[in-house]
Specification:
This protein is an alpha+beta fold. Helices cover 32% and strands 23% of the residues. The protein has four helices and six strands; from the N terminus they run ββαβααβββα. The structure holds zinc ion.
């Protein structure tokens, strides 16, 4: 006998209709070649197709009725955290220099939420690189210090909120974007 966990389906096994919150459903367990096979069936299908269904499947082991409960949506803060991580991973993967300030801000957001931990700071020529670790996965995120100037903050904030709203543009011509990275390290804004 195969004792796998069989989770409740989100849809009816017969009509594939998604269950609404608080919708009644029927669960049936069948023994198919010594494996328990679970079917979740909506009330309408149970009323209209029960006989043909049971005729096809044979005798069931068990049958019970339940009330579907929609899983609660994750709290908005968790959603935002996940989105920030997703955006940061995508930015690093696509290596878009003009988004370096946005990546820096996203990393700082995740560090504040303890989703990222700073492990060390490396210097490569004039450039400082923060090495962040994502403790949950052990992944390493190298983040270039964009040496943000006060005057750039509004622009970077706008970039970040655009990212949250629209995501990273599918096609991007880096040369057409005025880069917000600066060579001049004077009058920088510290992240603390
Ligand atoms: Zn159905």
């Amino acid at each position: 006998m195969d004792w796998k966990i069989q989770t409740r389906s989100k849809e009816c096994g017969l009509c594939s209709g998604l269950y609404q919150d608080k919708a009644p459903y029927h669960t049936l367990l069948f023994d198919v070649d010594h494996t328990w096979t679970r079917y979740d069936i909506c009330e309408t299908c149970w009323k209209t197709k029960k006989e043909s269904f049971l005729k096809e499947k044979g005798e069931f082991i068990s049958h019970w009725q339940g009330i579907f409960q929609s899983p609660p949506p994750p709290p908005p803060e968790i959603l935002e955290q996940n989105r920030a991580e997703e955006l940061l991973r995508e930015l690093l993967k696509r290596n878009l220099p003009s988004f370096a300030p946005s990546a820096f801000v996203l990393a700082a957001m995740l560090e504040r939420k303890k989703e990222l931990k700073i492990k060390s700071v490396k210097t490569s020529g004039e450039t400082r690189i923060f090495i962040y670790e994502h403790p949950a996965s052990g992944d390493i995120f190298p983040i270039v210090d964009p040496n943000l100037r006060l005057a750039q903050l509004d622009r970077v904030q706008q970039d970040v909120s655009d990212l949250f709203e629209k995501g990273i543009p599918e096609t991007l011509n880096e040369t057409n974007r005025s880069t917000t990275m600066v060579e001049d390290p004077t009058s920088t804004v510290s992240s603390d």
